[in-house]
Design brief:
By secondary structure, the chain is α/β, with parallel strands linked by helices. It contains nine helices and eight strands. It has helices at about 20-25, 40-55, 80-90, 115-130, 150-160, 170-175, 185-190, 215-235, 265-285, and strands spanning about 5-10, 30-35, 55-65, 105, 135-140, 165, 195, 240-245. Helix 4 (about 115-130) links the parallel strand 4 and strand 5 (about 135-140). Helix 1 (about 20-25) runs parallel beside helix 2, helix 5 crosses helix 7 (about 185-190) and helix 7 (about 185-190) crosses helix 8 (about 215-235). The longest helix has 21 residues, at about 265-285.
Length: about 290
């Protein structure tokens, strides 16, 4: 039977050093950390020391296209060639990192591209990943090629070897509804799924204020159905482990109070609640 491995998001841990993040994650039973390499060499070395000190694994993270209005939003007019150049440069940066990532999660491409450009990007990225000997998985993320179920289907159908990170919260907010009716797209995504980021979205946003809140119980239950579909598909494909990151984050994902800008919840508390909930959820799924 598959084993569940939980990863803590570096992005979702603002205000904490790598040493603090790693120590807290290890104490909570997380397998590792997920996030990008810091640009600053000293911070990069600190991250490596923190991972090694606590025996934590690492999932890398990269974005393509260059610096946009926010680091996860690519410049609108960056070309396929621009995206592939930044993809290769970001991938090459892991070569000298002391803790090698088990795989690399990529926010890749641009949502506005026609299908032929999206396919050109993914084909080029897969070739680059093979040259570097890296497993790269592509996230279902707004502003990117896999931003919506209906946009993802023709890409996944054309590229059976493409592996993805399923963050269904993005699809929910793009669709402005819970997406059970997109059953074919969900089933196809599950067959390509390698990793899950288990943020819970709702029809008007990518992140509920708190996944334990009863007013969002329907959203949590929907996402859990979709994660179960991923686990079932992975098990059928012979996976012996599955990875999951409770990626509730800042940057206005986390709701704040007007005028004071005070957060309505604590991100580390949410991550721990989500991790404990999904451990129990996975155990129940595995016994069924």
């Amino acid at each position: 039977m598959m084993q569940l491995e939980l990863y803590r998001s570096l992005w979702a841990s603002p205000g904490r050093s790598a040493a603090q993040i790693a120590e807290e994650a290890a104490a909570e039973g997380f397998t590792g950390l997920e996030g990008g390499l810091p640009a600053d060499p000293a911070e990069r070395a600190e991250l490596a020391r923190a991972l090694e000190a606590h025996g934590l694994s690492y999932i890398g993270e990269i974005c393509t296209g260059g610096a946009g209005p926010a680091w996860w939003v690519p410049p609108r007019h960056a070309s396929v060639a621009d995206h592939l150049a930044t993809f290769e440069a970001a991938l090459a940066a892991f070569d000298d990192f002391p803790v090698q990532p088990g795989f690399v999660n990529c926010m890749g491409g641009l949502d506005a591209w026609p299908l032929h450009e999206a396919l050109s990007f993914f084909e080029g990225a897969l070739d680059i990943a093979r040259r570097y000997g890296r497993t790269v998985v592509f996230e279902t993320h707004r502003t990117r090629c896999l931003y919506a179920p209906w946009a993802s289907v023709p890409i996944l159908e054309a590229l059976p070897e493409l592996l993805i990170t399923c963050d269904f919260s993005h699809w929910v907010v793009v669709a402005e509804r819970l997406i059970d009716e997109e059953a074919d797209a969900l089933a196809l995504a599950a067959r390509h799924a390698h990793h899950v980021q288990c943020r819970v979205g709702y029809p008007q946003g990518p992140q509920v204020p708190h996944p334990a809140a009863p007013e969002y119980a329907d959203c949590l239950a929907a996402h859990q159905r979709w994660w179960e579909a991923v686990w079932t598909a992975q098990h059928a494909r012979g996976y012996t482990r599955t990875t999951l990151t409770p990626e509730f984050g800042p940057d206005r994902y986390l709701h704040t109070l007007p005028f004071t800008d005070q957060p309505v919840a604590d991100l580390w508390d949410i991550a721990r609640w989500m991790a404990r909930t999904e451990r129990a959820h996975f155990a129940g799924w595995a016994r069924a």
